[in-house]
Structures are given as C-alpha cells and as structure tokens.
Amino acid sequence: MTQRVVRSLSSRERKASRPARCPVCGKGVLLPVDDITSEIEGYTFVERGLRCSACGEEFLPEEESQRMIRVARRLGIWGEPLKLRRKLSRSGRGTILRIPADIEHSLGLTGDEEVLVSRAGRKIVIELSR
C-alpha cells in the first residue's frame, strides 16, 4: 500500500493562489488586463494593470505609471510638479490667492475665467471650468 502525501497550503500560499478582491467594491476580483487607457493633453496611453470584474475600477502598478510618465515627459506633456510659495491675503470676507504671471501667461488667462475650487485632503485644487 502506497501512502499519498497531501500538502496543505500555508495561509500566505492560499492568498497568493486566490485572485485579489477589489478594494473599492469588495465584490469582484482583480483580473489582469492590457487595455487600460489614460489621456493626457490629447495623447492616449494604453497600459497594463488590473480591473475589477464587478465594478470595473482599474488599478495601475507603480511601474506602469512611471513608464507612462517617462513617455509623457519625453513628449513634453508632463512637466515637473510646480510648487510655488504664495501668501494668502484677505479682502473683505474672502481669502485671495494670486496666480503667478508665468502660470497666467502659459494658460492664457485673461482674469475673467471661471474656475472650480475643491479640497483634496489638505490641498486646494483649482481647475479651469472651460
């Protein structure tokens, strides 16, 4: 009589063999895909990543994101992050932020544009509403 050895998987091995659950919806599994598209300044990038089978949320690995940024920089459409120090001032009941002239000129601002202002954590995000 031959004895058959059955090896059980450790919890780490079981987790590695199971597809990951979606962190957004918690229902679907993350499946590898190679058709995730991103658009920057009219250029479309196609990247590899993971997509949830239930909600469709897409996740890019860090390497793919960095590759896309390198290509975008070569194309001249991804600048270095611009962090300028500015002091806020008061006017009546409101707070004023002055936009630096070089940014004003590069965006073609005339001073009568409508903008969208939102908060992201401790950041203030300003977008042109064109």
Question: What does the model show?
Answer:
- The protein is of the alpha+beta class and 130 residues long.
- It has two domains: 18-75, Ubiquitin-like (UB roll) (Roll); 89-128, Pemi-like Protein 1, Chain: D (Ribbon).
- The chain has three helices and seven strands; from the N terminus they run H-E-E-E-H-E-E-H-E-E.
- The protein has helices spanning 11-17, 62-75, 101-106, and strands at residues 30-40, 43-52, 58-59, 89-91, 94-96, 115-120, 123-128.
- The strands form three sheets. Strands 1-2-3 form a three-stranded antiparallel β-sheet. A two-stranded antiparallel sheet has the order 4-5. It has a two-stranded antiparallel ribbon with strand order 6-7.
> What is the beta-strand fraction?
25-35%
Task: Please list the strands of the largest sheet in the order they lie side by side.
Answer: 1-2-3
Number of strands: 7
Distance between the termini: 79 Å
Class by alpha and beta content: alpha+beta
Helix content: 10-25%
Please count the helical segments. 3
| Poorly predicted runs of 5 or more residues | 4-10
Largest sheet, described in full? 3 strands, antiparallel
User: CATH class of the largest domain, please?
Assistant: Alpha Beta
Order of helices and strands: HEEEHEEHEE
In short:
With 130 residues, the protein is an alpha+beta fold.
List the helices and strands and how they pair.
Layout: H1 11-17, E1 30-40, E2 43-52, E3 58-59, H2 62-75, E4 89-91, E5 94-96, H3 101-106, E6 115-120, E7 123-128
Antiparallel strand pairs: 1-2, 2-3, 4-5, 6-7
